[in-house]
Amino acid sequence: MTSVHVVVATVGKAHGLRGEVALILRTDQPAERLAAGTAFSVDADGAPDTLTVASTRTQQGRWYARFAEVTGRTEAEALRGVDLELELDREEEAQEDPDAWYPSELTGLTVRHVDGRDLGVVVDLEHYPAQDVLIVRAPGRGRVMLPFVAELVPEVDVEAGIVLADPPGGLFEDLPEDDDETSEGGGPSEDTQSAEDTQCPESTESPASTGV
After folding, report:
1. CA nearest 146: which of 167, 129, 119?
2. Sign of the C-alpha dihedral, residues 88, 89, 94, 99?
3. Distance CA 90, CA 67 (A)
4. What pLDDT, in 10s, does the model give residues 62-88?
5. pTM higher than 0.70, yes or no?
6. What is the pLDDT of residues 179-211, one digit of tens each?
7. How many Cβ atoms sit within 10 Å of the Cβ of residue 67?
8. CB of 9 within 8 A of CB of 21?
9. Half-sphere exposure of residue 193, counting CA atoms within 13 Å on the CB side?
10. Residue 196's CB: how many other CB atoms inside 10 A?
């Protein structure tokens, strides 16, 4: 079996007194990936070794979850920032969605403009309600959010290590200098979806399938 590890959500703030937590989704299939009974192995200080989904709910577009191993607010607060990761069968997933891509497959690929210029390196793939977004680190510059849609990303060649991009003018130009190399990767925060040094154009194109 060829496996792939995917982060389906990151635990956010504790909500209420009975162990419920907000989730920062990293998947476009939350109902399937976060079904009751799904168990996640966890390696984090103050957290149980396993988190088993007891229930989920949505409120105003946000997802909340309760885990069988967590019964109080103090325990829930200790989970903040924990990634919920699954190991999936890549071949099985490909049969269900042959166009699916995973963050582990895209991270580290060179983003190359259709005119031949290298624009940067993919450092993450983030999921947003409207579309998925490639997070690109431009050389010596800030992060760039490149919508992962066929119009702007016409080709991904994992074997060649290339993501072919046709971004709108200005997206990769005139970026502010960014000396903070620690900001690479990571999902959208709970309260905001972009950093001050991030540029992201709106796109009406249908999102590419990530299968996360």
Report:
1. 167
2. positive
3. 27
4. 999 999 999 999 999 999 999 999 887
5. no
6. 444 344 444 444 333 333 444 554 444 445 555
7. 25
8. no
9. 14
10. 8
